[in-house]
Amino acid sequence: MPKSLRSPRHRRFPAQLVSLRKAKGLTQAQVAEKLGRPQSFVAKYEGGERRLDVIEFLEVTVALDTEPCEILSSSGPSGRPRA
């Protein structure tokens, strides 16, 4: 299995988080404040410089007021929701 960092699938994942954040009308700083983290934390995972572990991902979904499954379902190998 090739490493996922920088793969097309890995690039789609933070792009989804960015789109969702913007759709909610939130800045990186506002999300960071909700997470109790610096703005650079959000910038790094959104830019693909850093991976989120499962717990961090769940915390981000709470900050974005969304269900984790909504994001994961559209993170399939082709980028389309899984059936």
Describe the structure.
It is a single chain. With 83 residues, this protein is an all-alpha fold. It has one domain (8-73): 434 Repressor (Amino-terminal Domain). Helix content is 58%, strand content 0%. It has helices at residues 8-23, 28-35, 39-46, 54-63, 68-73. Helix 2 packs across helix 3. The longest helix has 16 residues, at 8-23.
Short description:
The chain is an all-alpha fold and 83 residues long. It contains five helices and no strands.
Q: Which parts are unreliable, with pLDDT below 50 for 5 consecutive residues or more?
A: none
Domains, number: 1
Record field, number of beta strands = 0
Order of helices and strands: HHHHH
What is the CATH architecture annotation? Answer: Orthogonal Bundle
Main sheet record: none
CATH evolutionary superfamily? lambda repressor-like DNA-binding domains
Look at the helices and sheets and give the structural class.
mainly alpha
Q: Which topology does CATH recognise?
A: 434 Repressor (Amino-terminal Domain)
Termini separation comes to 23 Å
Helical amount among residues, as a percent range?
55-70%
Percent range for β-strand residues: under 5%
Please state the CA-atom Rg, rounded to the nearest Å.
12 Å
Number of helices: 5
Mean pLDDT: 87
Query: For the record, what CATH class applies?
Result: Mainly Alpha
How does the SSE layout of this entry go?
Blueprint: H1 8-23, H2 28-35, H3 39-46, H4 54-63, H5 68-73
Helix pairs in contact: 2-3
Question: Which properties best describe this structure?
Answer:
globular, 83 residues, 5 helices, mainly alpha, 434 Repressor (Amino-terminal Domain), single chain
